[in-house]
Amino acid sequence: MHRMKSYVRRENYSCIMTGLAVIGIVLLWISMTASRSESSSDVPTSAGHAELLSMHSSLQEKISSINRMLNENPALKGTQSLNAGIENALTKLKELESRFKDLEVQVPKKYPDVRFLNYKDRKRILITGGAGFVGSHLVDKLLLEGHEVIAVDNFFTGRKRNVEHWIGHHNFELINHDIVNPLFIEVDQIYHLASPASPPHYMFNPVKTIKTNTVGTINVLGLAKRVGARVLLASTSEVYGDPEVHPQTEAYWGHVNPIGPRACYDEAKRVAETLAFAYLQQEGVPVRISRIFNTYGPRMHINDGRVVSNFILQALQGQDITVYGNGAQTRSFQFVTDLVDGLVLLMNSNFSQPVNIGNPDEHTIDEFAQIIHGMVGGGSGVVHKAAVEDDPRRRKPDITRAREQLGWRPL
Ligand SMILES: NC(=O)c1ccc[n+]([C@@H]2O[C@H](COP(=O)([O-])OP(=O)(O)OC[C@H]3O[C@@H](n4cnc5c(N)ncnc54)[C@H](O)[C@@H]3O)[C@@H](O)[C@H]2O)c1
What we know:
By secondary structure, the chain is an alpha/beta fold. It folds into two domains: about 1-105, Methane Monooxygenase Hydroxylase, Chain G, domain 1 (Up-down Bundle); about 125-405, Rossmann fold (3-Layer(aba) Sandwich), CATH 3.40.50. The chain is built from twelve helices and 13 strands. The protein has helices spanning about 1-40, 45-70, 75, 80-105, 135-145, 200-205, 205-225, 265-285, 305-315, 335-345, 365-375, 400-405, and strands at about 125-130, 150-155, 170-175, 190, 230-235, 285-290, 295, 320-325, 330, 335, 355, 365, 380-385. The strands form four sheets. A seven-stranded parallel beta sheet has the order 3-2-1-4-5-6-11, sandwiched between helices. Strands 7-10 form a two-stranded parallel ribbon. A two-stranded parallel sheet has the order 8-13. Helix 5 packs across helix 10 (about 335-345). The chain starts with a helix and ends in a 5-residue tail after the last helix. The structure holds nicotinamide-adenine-dinucleotide (NAD). Nicotinamide-adenine-dinucleotide binds near residues 131 and 179. InterPro entries: NAD(P)-bd_dom (IPR016040), NAD(P)-bd_dom_sf (IPR036291), UXS-like (IPR044516). Belongs to the NAD(P)-dependent epimerase/dehydratase family. UDP-glucuronic acid decarboxylase subfamily. It is found in: Golgi apparatus, Golgi stack membrane. Pathway: Nucleotide-sugar biosynthesis; UDP-alpha-D-xylose biosynthesis; UDP-alpha-D-xylose from UDP-alpha-D-glucuronate: step 1/1. It catalyses: UDP-alpha-D-glucuronate + H(+) = UDP-alpha-D-xylose + CO2.
């Protein structure tokens, strides 16, 4: 037994020594490679960088396996030369980690091709909520058109991943900022999208939703007034509440329960529209108001909780599709790229009245569930659960105004 233990110890010892020798050689190789790329006038290539990263992770694995062996065989710990070797390797690893960070900055990144605009046509554009679902598509469109874009987001529902393909581009900036606090920045146009948009998100903290859409909107309008910028407000079809007029025209004032579960969003957006109009009339701030109807597309939050993403997710997971209520309530969905085209047209128009931006192609929720079940598959079909409080029964935009004023309609 004793012989067995000492054999294991001896084996581990030689294993550790071999590990240290390997680490030493790899460290030497990495330092040489890193200094070669530093002394060269060329920045390191992505392939070389990937090679360094894989060396780095294999080194980390080796060190953790040595640490594991030491913990399993405390008798080995006492070996002075071994301890010194490990200490030495760890210090070198730390140095290398900081060198990796420096090298990462130098790795050239490939960006989508953007149009060249001369300084007269190029605008500095602020997008609040720019890391969200709609905001990130707007970032894409405006950058591709050749503008400078500053996205401001507090990342409540937005994600850096949505705009990561632009990070580092000379025309793009991402600022972590909560719009409930004032922002001082020089811009020509502001798309004000910051607000949670799906019911589970805006009901999560109703008071904050109200603040974002009221105090946040005052901050945006105040900024526009100071710097002479034009503002487009992302309002919503929810200002119509559970509508008694069908389809909904912009002239309809709405039917909203002021103390219902959706009120924090619906009423706050109604106040945001009122604020925009007050700044237009009192201060002469040029405002545009888009009433956005249900939109879907890539980069919707996985836990968005809205119909399209819920249905697709359930179908992909092989579950039954859940319809709340009898399924006879109607909705109409537009694709996100249609929406951003409409927003840009509206911003650059001379029209200050609210404009519906949505798809008038209306379906019952049951029909949607069947369409998605037919396309994606999933469980045995569609199940119905109790209706959600204040869920609008019908929703369909009248887009005559968008068509006449902007020449816009969904493709
Ligand atoms: N997507 C739709 O179907 C739809 C329909 C009607 C209206 N809208 C409006 O369009 C806008 C964008 O909606 P979306 O679907 O992209 O939602 P989203 O949740 O994906 O995006 C909203 C963004 O705003 C950010 N945000 C929230 N509170 C903020 C704050 N206090 N400060 C800074 N950033 C904040 C979030 O982190 C997120 O990135 C919203 O104003 C929404 O009301 C969307």
